[in-house]
Write a structure and sequence with these properties.
The protein is α+β, with helices and mostly antiparallel strands. About 20% of the residues lie in helices and about 40% in strands. It has one domain (about 5-175): Jelly Rolls. It has 2 helices and 12 strands, in the order ββαββββββββββα.
Length: about 180
């Protein structure tokens, strides 16, 4: 797969027919390992204005995804490799659902679609890294993403660590009660 680099963690496939091989996954994993935010993606769509966005994403276990919701987007994940929990929140930050996901061999759900854009959500990566195929409706406009006001900012390293430790406990409590 031929790619052009947008920044150290975002690449666009340039081939007219996009195919992803194990070697391509290795490339994305290498980029995620050295990315400051510990993530990387290859976009199969042509640009931000496309109506359908498809990406192969790698997140390292210590990658922090600020809980967010999308005002107008529908998105789905298909896990290729690894294990993660999708955590769904209400507007106050209460955990309302946990989708335990993994690749097909894990026995967990390997596909998830969030059709209601009003839910805040994040991922807790349970394996060394997570590789997944994400689809989302486009076009991409940063203003369509609402960052949870009750979650620490991405640049708040101490707040992130404390928040994720607390979230782990809240998720376990939610799962135990289910």
């Amino acid at each position: 797969m031929n790619v052009r680099e947008i920044n150290p963690e975002v690449f666009y496939a340039t081939d007219r027919i996009v195919c992803v091989t194990d070697a391509d996954l290795g490339f994305i994993q290498e980029k995620a390992a050295v990315s400051p935010r510990r993530r990387a993606r290859v976009c199969a769509h042509r640009g931000v204005d496309d109506k359908l966005h498809e990406m192969i994403v790698v997140l390292k276990q210590d990658s922090y995804l600020t809980p967010e919701k999308h005002e107008v987007k529908v998105e789905s994940y298909h896990i290729i490799k690894g294990i993660a929990d999708v955590v769904i929140f209400d507007d106050a930050g209460n955990v309302t659902a946990v989708v335990q996901m993994g690749d097909h061999a894990s026995g967990r759900a390997f596909y998830y679609r969030l059709s209601d854009p009003s839910f805040y959500h994040t991922l807790i990566i349970r394996s060394e890294s997570l590789v997944y195929h994400e689809t989302a409706t486009g076009p991409f406009q940063k203003s369509d993403t609402v960052i949870a006001p009750w979650a620490p900012a991405e640049n708040d390293l101490t707040g992130r660590r404390v928040y994720m430790e607390q979230l782990e406990k809240r998720v376990q409590g939610f799962l135990d009660a289910a």
